[in-house]
Structures are given as C-alpha cells and as structure tokens.
Amino acid sequence: ILVFIGILLINWAASTLRIYGIGKIxxxxxxxxxSELFSHxxxxxxxxxxxxxxxxxxxxxxxxxxxxxxxxTSGVIMVISDILSLALIVIVMxxxxxxxxxxxxxxxxxxxxxxxxFNSRFRATYxxxxxxxxxxxxxxxxxxxxxxxxxxxxxxxxxxxxFRQVNLENFQANLQATRVWGAFFPTIQVIQAVGSGIVMIYxxxxxxxxxxxxxxDAIGTLITFLLYVGMFFGPIFDLxxxxxxxxxALAGAERIFELMDTQSEIRDDEDAIEMPPIKGEIAFEDVTxxxxxxxxxxxxxSFQVEPEETxxxxxxxxxxxxxxxxxxxxxxxxxSGSIKIDxxxxxxxxxxxxxxxxxxxxQDTFLFTGTIMDNIRYGKLEATDEEVMNASKIVGAHEFITxxxxxxxxxxxxxxxxxxVGQKQLxxxxxxxxxxxxxxxxDEATSSIDPYTxxxxxxxxxxxxxxxxxxxxxxxLSTVRNANRILVIDNGKIV
Length: 495
Fold this sequence. Notes:
six-stranded mixed beta sheet, about 65% helix, elongated
C-alpha cells in the first residue's frame, strides 16, 4: 500500500511538471512565431498591405497560430506517451503469444490506409475552416473600425446581415470538417472491432485445439490477451484524435508559412550604404511609376528642389501628388528614372537611414493608444518632456493640450479617439517638428482644419519650414501661398 501511495505521489509530481513544462514550451513557441510574424509584417512594403485584407492578416497571426499551439500543447506529449505504450503493449503481447499478436496486428495496415484515404478530405475541409474564420475576423474588424460610417448611414442591419452570412459560412465549414471526422472515427472503431473479432476467433480455435495448453490456462491466456488488445487500441484512438488536430494545425501552418514566405519587393541593396546627413537637395529625373501596369500614374516626372526650398504640389484628386511623396520616401520602387537626394540615388542607401531623416505629416493622422506625450515623442523617442512641450507650443497645440483633464498625460483611445480632427493634426505637426529632419513632407495635412486652427498652423509653419527642404501637398491657397514654387500636377505630369 505504501509503495502504491508512493507511486501515486510520483505520478502527481511528474504530471504537474509535465503539464507546466509542455505548457511553457508551447507558449514560448507561440510567442516566437507571433513575434517573427509581426516583425516580418513590419518589413513588408505598402504594396503588400494594398492588396491584403487586414482581417485576414490578423486571423493568421491569432487564429492560425493558436491552431498550431493547440496541436503542440495537447498532442506532443500524448503522442510520445501513446507510442511508448504501444511499444510496451506489443512486447507484452508477443511474450504471451506470438501467433495471436501477429493476428491482432493485421488490422494496423487498414488503419494507416484509412488515414491516407481521409487525408485529402481532412486537409481540404480544414483549409476551408481557416479561410472562413479569416473572413469572420475581417468582417469583425471592419464592423468595429467603420462603426462611425455604419451608424452615420444607418447600415447596422446590413452590417449585421453581412457578418451573419460569413459567420454562417464559417459554421458550415466547421460542420463539414466535423462530418469528415464523424466518418473517420467510426471507421477506426469498426477496424478495432474487426481486430478483436479476429483475435477471438483465432484464439478460440487455438484454445480448443490445445495449442494454448490446458483449457483453463488457455481461457486465462485468451482473456488476458483480449485485455491487452483493448489496451493496444486505446493509444491508437488517441493518435487518431491527434491526427484530427494535426490536420487543423497543418491548414493553419500553410497560411502562416505563406505569409512568412512573402518577400518584400523593396529591399536594400547588398552594398547599400547609410544615408549621410541630408542637406536637402532633391532631384526627380524622368520618373515613371505605375501601381497597375495597365494604369500608369506618373509619366516622365522631372523636377529639382534646392536645399531649404519649399515647393507645393497642387492638382486634382488622383493626379499623382501623393505618389510622388511615397516614391521619395521609397515606400514604392519606381519603374524607370531615378530619385536623388544630395546627388545620392535613394535606391543605393538603406531605407531606415533615408526615412529617419524625413518628417512626414499625412492627411489621415494616426495616433496610437497611449498618452499625448507619448504620441508626440513618437517622432523622437529620446526627447525630453520640455522638448515635447516646446514643439507643441510652436505649432499651437500646447493650449488645447493643457486644457485636457491630465494635460500631456491624458490618455487617448485608438486612432486618437476623443480628439477632434484638427487637434490630431496639430499633434502630428508637433511630432514632425520634434523629429528635426532636413526634409519635411506635408501631405494635405491642413485639409481638415478649421479656419482658426489653420491660422495657428500657418503661424507654426513659418517655424516648421525654416531651414529645411519642404514639399507641401495642399488644396488650400493659404497653405501654399508662401511656397517658393508651385508645381501643378495633372494626369501624372507637371503641367
């Protein structure tokens, strides 16, 4: 009894360590996979995100990675345990009777054949489930991110119906996977019954023929052997369950590796150098660019900007103004021609060293969840609180910030929730000023600002544009009035 109690205590301790150990290994694996996926996503160019669904990307990083974790944490140790159990059971069975052991093993090829027969159906159904849950995530992301538009246009009912439809498709895909599993598992049970039947019939024949010794011993041997046969199929059932989990994990892994194998079209040259401190001379030389080969955006664009000069780009929507900025920042690579800064082709310098020396303020200001202080300091992480406040004062943001409940330490929601459009743009101006770059880009940064805030911005721009090369995209005449030159872009050409 004491030995038995001791074994139970050892089993308890070993099980505790096993569960903790496999959990730690599994979570560490998921942590690394998600970290590598996110790091890889940060390296991919704008063109990848232009053609990708954000909900699908989120689903790959969350749902698909979880499916791998489930297979690992719930299956690996079980598989090792089951394989060891099978090996020991087969050894014991062979020691009891070789003939009966061989007869019971006759059904093993049938099990493997069934697994192979169902393999393609499993893979297809689980691929469908991964794709459908991805669509659910996409609709969910759109339904939350676009809640203002949904309510403004009173489209709640349509949005709910759209989500219900993709959710139904996900339900049906998982139901189909369950049907396949529902056909596979009973197949294994039937094979087990056939195996037990073969042992019973053949064992009975051996017992009555005297091959197993006296009838009393033969019955005892046969019953013992049948018990081991039942134990033999226990781990096999566990392995078939694991096989089901693995198929789901493999479908998720395919989507993960597809994302990891996506290569960036924009890469640093092997001999790319660090961009020297920029003086600010910019030259576009016969630049042609197209997002889609059928629809060129820029046609042989050429112009030059002198250091500390301010130029404005104006023209109708879709003329190619923002594309010029994206090419200068090397968010895309041009098809022909060249872009040079201080005489250095931007394709021959590292992307980070290039963008590090540029300040960009976009029309659609993005603020991160956190404090206002942190959002302004995003332009220069090592900046002191005093430097942040000085930048805010220059652009006229200090006044409204100090009126907030916690001033600069006021927390804002996702995308700057709680602030007006004008307030968010003032913060983005402070962030760009704090960066202290030689080149400043304003992409319709004042388009959504009220007249009073516009007055503040124009006063701030006298400081903001001083001693740096600036490119301004704007529709307001008040914004471009003081530019050294105005370039009118129409249909991808300077007219």
